[in-house]
Each structure stands twice: as C-alpha cells, then as structure tokens.
Write the structure tokens for this entry.
Amino acid sequence: MTIHAKTALLGTGWAKNIRVHVRNRRISGLETGAAVSGDTCVDLLLPAPGNLHSHAFQRAMAGMTETRAAGRESFWTWRTLMYRFLDRLTPDQIQAIAALTYVEMQEAGFAAVGEFHYVHHQPGGQPYDTLSELSQRIFAAADQTGIGLTHLPVLYSYGGVQQQALEGGQLRFGNSLDRYCDLTEECRTILPHADSKIGVAPHSLRATSPGDLKQLMQLDPTGPVHIHIAEQVQEVTDVEAALGQRPVAWLLNNMDVDQRWCLIHATHMTDAETRMLARSGAVAGLCPITEANLGDGIFNGSAFINEGGRFGVGSDSNIRISLPAELRTLEYSQRLRDRERAVLVRGEGSVGHALYTGATSGAAQALDRDSGSIAIGKLADLVAFDRSHPSLWPLTDDQVLDGLCFAGPDGLVTDLWSAGRHMVREGRHVARDRIVDTYRAAIAELLTDV
C-alpha cells in the first residue's frame, strides 16, 4: 500500500509530495518529491496519536449525568450514578458500546486506544464462566473497528484506601491478585491484532494495597503500567492519612516509576511532586475534557513541561471524543489559571505543534506502541486532515497545527490508518453503519430495562 501526501510531518520535519510505503503494518519506505500515481492521495498527513485512557462503556452515559440534584454535585455523586448504570450492562451491550466508541475515536484521529478495563464480572460480582469474557468483548470491538489496542485489565480489590470491602457497582470490578493474574494471562493469548499489547493497571492507591502493588510489579516487570493518581482532593487527603504521603509522592518514593508508567490525571500535585514526576520519565495521562466535566481540577502543566515532562491525552469517560478539543482544553485550562497565553510549549515556538507532537509521542510511550512519528520501521498509525478547510488553508506549515488545535472544527479527518489498516475513508469509518445499527439496538434494549 502507498499513500501520497501533499504535505507530511515526518520525523525529520515538514516535507512536500511524500509517498509513504506500508508493508506488514509498518512504514517500509518514504519518497520525497514523488508524483501521484495510483496512491491514496491526501492533503495533510500526520502521525496519528493514541488515545491513552478510555473507559469505553461510559460512552453510553454521555448526556445522562448533567442534571443538578439537591446538594453539591461532584465526581463522587457522578460515580454513584455510573455504578448504577454499569450494573445493568450485558456483555453484548458492552461490546456494542465499545465498538461505537472506537469508531468515533478513529474518525476523530486516534489510531489506537489504551482501554483501562475494570468491568470484569457479572452484576453482583460473580465471574463469568470464562474469566476474560468482558475483555474478550473489548477485543471483539477492536477487531470490528481495526483500532490499535493496548488492553489494560484493572486490578481493583478494595472500596477505599483503608481496604474496605467492595460493594454495589464495584463488585463487578473486584479481583484478588491471584485471580487478576489468571485474567491477564488468559487475555495475553487472545489479543485481537498482531500489534495489540497488554499491560497492567492497578486502579489507584485507594483500590489496591501497597503490598499487592509491589508484588504485581514483580510479576510483570516489563509491560506498560497505568494507574489513576491524585484525581480528586478527597483522594489525596485519604491516601495521605492512610499511607503518610500524598499519592504522587508515595508512588514515586515507594515504586520504581520509570518510562513504562503512565500516571492518569495526576491533577493535584505540589511543585516538588511535579518535578519528580517529570524527571521519572513516566507519562502524565491527561484527560482534559473529562477532568473539566467532573470538576477534577487543573494539571500543573507549565511546571511539568518546563521540567521536560512527557504527556499524552485520553478521552476517559468518552462524553466527547475529539482530538482537537482535548488538546485545546488542556492548553486553555492553563491559560485560565495562569492568565497568560501560549503556556504549554517549552521555550519558544508553536503551541499547537508542541501539543500535537507531545501527545503523539507520549501516547506511543504509554501504550508501548512502536509509533509516534512517520519514519521507516514505525507502525503505520497515520491520519490525514482536509487542509482545504477554511480554518486551515490560509496557514503555513508552521501554523497548521495551531489551526488544527485552536481553530479547526471536528470532522477534518479524511483518512486514518491503524497499523496500516485503512479504517477511515472520506471521513467515515468503513464499518460505521453496521456498528451504529448494533449500538442502537443494544441501547434500546438497555433503556427498556431501566
């Protein structure tokens, strides 16, 4: 397969009239100054980022939790509603929701996803006859849509940092460390694509124990590790009371946090914690739209970037799936807090370029995915945008990522390849109609049961 791009952002910089050769999922050749001849032709070709943090099933809740009830609405009241919702979901419905979510991700420009998957069991907590039943539903959705997948089964053992018993909706999450290891080993044998990966995901310091966390790292010493950390002030207070340190500080002081780790949210950090995290080489997994929707707070972005910190973005609750909106929300949150402009760029230069390339390389690291740039040997995770759109066509190459991040609407993606699989063509996912029909039927059934 070959792709001809009028303009492409290569690992070496901007280039014109590029022909990209793809073989066995990877970029096998690059020609500059190439004439068009029987290729898939696109305007603007970029490395496609991964979406490093998703809870796919929550996509079906979008718009259902935006009503104010008596008292103060918060992350914790939202979580209670989420538990009620997931307690009704069947395996078929989980697969249908995930498939639609992945279609929308690819149409938005994401070539891969890190699925932070914590719904493992039946309502009430009884395992399915096949322990990995619901992981297999995620794999089926990835297979239907062709999206690159880093599957992150979640270890969730306790209802709080004091090791309270699970209850209510949490019962579908629960595993001992031994059963969790059985689950992950079962998953390793049935991943959907040759480029799929599996990692481990201790949910948070409030849902696992220090002993189990350390033992888990000994059992899986090489793959990606994702963990929720310091998302909410109450979480920080509870962990500090139980463990004697704030969550980010405890993790960095007690675990060998390095490049394979991704700390999701890390919203509430001191300046010292921010410097420590940046210097560890770990990725900060930021979900700006969800963090704004849940009222989490604002990431300490400027200090983190100035220390050389690495980041990526994820759509988390999937209330809105938009690559440009995630990036601009991240930057705008910093501007509102600091009351200045052009914050998330180290030194000088284009903010859009810094946001896009930073998120792309950070997600590739966090997902343990050999992508992140258009270079020979890399996975062909590629996305093309319509540069003829009025929001982009007047802009120079050095400005076009600023236009994409800050001025461009959704819907500018024309084509997307996930490891060479050409899944979006002319702006639509190739399996959209069938997947939407299945989703509608699944949700109609779900709503009938409510």
Q: What stands out?
A: The mean pLDDT is 94. The first strand starts at residue 2 and ends at 10.
